[in-house]
Design goal:
Structural class: mainly beta
Radius of gyration: 21 Å
Helix content: under 10%
Number of helices: 0
Shape: flat
Distance between the termini: 51 Å
Order of helices and strands: EEEEEEEEEEEEEEEE
Length: 188
């Protein structure tokens, strides 16, 4: 069994019958009382965010998580469908388990987190940055590069991203899937 000393960001633990991912954690020490460990937890199988406190050295219940590469296929009324690149087995995942569904492209490789005990998907992580085509954007004016003014642009996945004025329709850009922000223009 693991203890609070094994706590780290990204660890998935079972608490009160639900799975939670550790977002942030720390330790509180006082002169008279025993040290306490606190953690900010985000629900993996629910949409809750909670804070939990344990006495230092208390037992926690981590869940073994396997990461496998899958390829995104399509979306329908049942959810998002992915295919295992090695076994060609297909799985369907609910939209709530995908960290940035608006940036999924057909054929894109993602990491699917599987519960090691049940082999059920508990999350889908996209690459940190993706390259996408700008399908619609208002044309920029010559000389509009001096200020940090942004304009909305529609990308090939259908999502809208704020881009600098010099980015035009038909260009490839790099977008952060964590923040949804424009990173840079991609030279072809």
């Amino acid at each position: 069994m693991a203890t609070t000393a094994d706590m780290r960001s990204g660890l998935i633990i079972k608490l009160d019958g639900s799975l939670y991912s550790v977002v942030e954690f720390g330790q509180n020490k006082t002169a008279r009382a025993a040290a306490k460990v606190w953690a900010k937890l985000k629900g993996v199988d629910n949409n809750r965010t909670i804070e939990q406190t344990w006495n230092s050295g208390e037992t926690i219940h981590p869940v073994r998580v396997e990461k496998k590469t899958y390829q995104y296929l399509y979306k329908d009324e049942t959810g998002y469908s992915f295919m295992d690149n090695e076994t060609f087995e297909q799985i369907t995942v609910a939209e709530t388990l995908v960290n940035a569904p608006q940036f999924l492209k057909d054929g894109q490789e993602v990491i699917v987190l599987l519960n090691g005990e049940t082999d059920m998907p508990i999350g889908v992580e996209l690459p940190e940055k993706i390259d996408v085509l700008v399908t619609y954007s208002e044309p920029g004016m010559k000389g509009d590069t001096a200020t940090r003014t942004l304009k909305p642009a529609t990308i090939e996945t259908g999502a809208t991203v704020n881009v600098p004025l010099f980015v035009n329709e038909g260009e490839m850009i790099r977008v952060s899937t964590k923040t949804g922000e424009y990173v840079e223009r991609v030279k072809s």
